[in-house]
Each structure stands twice: as structure tokens, then as C-alpha cells.
Fold:
Amino acid sequence: MNDPHVSPAPATPRVHRTPIQLRFADIDMLGHVNNVAYASYVETARVEFLRSLGEEVTSIIVAHLALDYRRPVHVGRALSVDTWVEKIGRTSVTLQQVVWADADRATDVRSVLVFYDYARGAPMPVPDAMRAALERYHGQGG
Structure:
């Protein structure tokens, strides 16, 4: 894949997989998952991923979200989302995600999360413990 916005899943780092429950409300009149449902799927997976790290998360905002739809998903498919870390910056982390329908790659997602100090109204450095936890999922893709 030569898409400059999405790196392929790395071979060596850990990938966090979240099963997704397909809901009736996600299906449009054509019988496939509506495009807006994917943002909810990756949000669910993002939250589960961050919880799995074992560090308290109280100060993250989504600064960027890009979805590249690869194929339609119809009712009856088992959905899951893989999540890994593309980049850890000073105040942000870039996540890569793939929405799978059974074994078919349905959507590639890239998001930038900023650690934010609400009292100051400004970005804050990624806490050291969180940085260490994120490193376990840091990819080598490109």
C-alpha cells in the first residue's frame, strides 16, 4: 500500500484488537454499514486500547481523524479493529487503526491524540508512564 496517510500494520510491534458489535442503526438503506458508524467503531477501539495500557487517561483530545474506506461492509460480517502506535511525540500520539470485516480490510484510520492540560488550556507532555506503555505498541510501519 502506497497511501502516504496510512502505514501498514507493522510486523513486530504488538497490535491491540477490539471486537466490534454491529448495530442495526449502523446499517443504511443499501444494507451496508454507513460511513459515520466507522468513527464510532474506532472510538470504541481507541478507548479500549488506552484502557488496556493500565494508565489513567483523563487529558486526551482528538486533534485529527482520517478514515480511508477500502470496501463496504454488509450485515453478517464479524467486525474488529486493530490499533497500534505510529508515532509518539512530545505532546501527542499518532495511532493507526484498521477496521476488519472478517478477514477483509474495510477501513484504514489515522488519528492524532493530544495530551491536554484543561486547567492551562494548552497541550502537555505525554506522561512518562503513558509513554512507556505506548512504546509496547509502537510500530515500525511506513
